[in-house]
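Hey L., structure's done. Input below.
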Amino acid sequence: MNVLFIAYHPVSYPVMLSQGLPYMSGLSKNGVRYSLLTFETDKSKTCSGRYISEFGAPVKWRYLTYHNRPRIAATIFDVTLGILTVTYMILRDKIKIIHARGFIPALIALIPAKLFRVRLFFDTRGLLADKYVCGGLLNKNGLSYKIMRYCEDLLLKHSDIFTVETDSHAEVVKKTQSYLTPKMRMIPCCVDMSKFDYRLYEYSREDEFRLVYSGQIGTWYLLDKMLDFFKIALQEFSRAHFTFISENDPAVFYSAAKRIGIDENKIIVRKADSKDIPNLLAAANVGVFFMNPYRRYNTFPIKFGEYLASGLPVVVNSGIGDCDKMIRKENVGAIVKDFSAGEYKISVGILRLLLKEGEALKKRCRLAAEECCSLEKGIEGYWSIYKDLAG
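Output:
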């Protein structure tokens, strides 16, 4: 089975390392032969090449240079060159299925797929237009948003199969675009349970509140709100500390803490390679993320599964994908209904009770991750899609 996987970012991009290569590695064991098209920067080429050389299965890798200025013209240029490159790769590698991971890869794939009668799998990872509005990158009344929404609907209509990340998103599709339901599949962002496992690390289990946030901040994730929550937690846990695992400038975190009135000694900022993140998560005992909830029913944050797999209960604001439902069902965290001191105090109280369960809580969190978002389940889901497309 020859599959072309398209990603509009480098091989070395964190999302590709957690949500691309691991799936490809597992599916290669089922006989899938991958060709891979990525978009690289001058800085990423060497590192991406190293990951490809270390990949456990043969893959035909081709890359194009990523352009970002001026934004719209650069993207149009990348899409055009991508269409020509995909056409060449279809013919060269005898491709039968295109796995387009995201909006831009699907745009690149659409014309060649139809021209050469190749099956198109649109792995949406949550539709992009509303996410951009949420992050302040687009105006929901603007022309760019309307064009992007039109293109997304076009891709959903003309793809052979598409995925969504959450049951909440699937329900929206069923209600508003029911004719698309037969070719819709749900696969959340999955986590490698063998890597994110608190049992692999030994740490002191003192009675303290060790909060952790992993990932970038700014566009969607709300640093000030998370620090407001931590300030309330400090009233209950005087020895609490907050670790940020992020590529952002540490000064951003320390200045925000100072502005909110938090002693900078309570804040730890760490830059870490992907291989070191499981260790750092295991050193915490609560994971957190707050994000703009605007139409986030289509989002399953990668960090949610990684926190749970690491044995951490999670505190999150309401309205983020299936997080609310899962936290309530499995009793693995707390949900902030709004960004207020009262809600923060309620959530801190819930977490205090949960943390008293010790090892039982960690096991429950990990089991919840295994049941909903383990890498093995993700591979099974993609393999089922590939078989349907090939059959």
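The first strand starts at residue 2 and ends at 7. The chain has two domains: 2-188+375-390, 198-373.

-- N.
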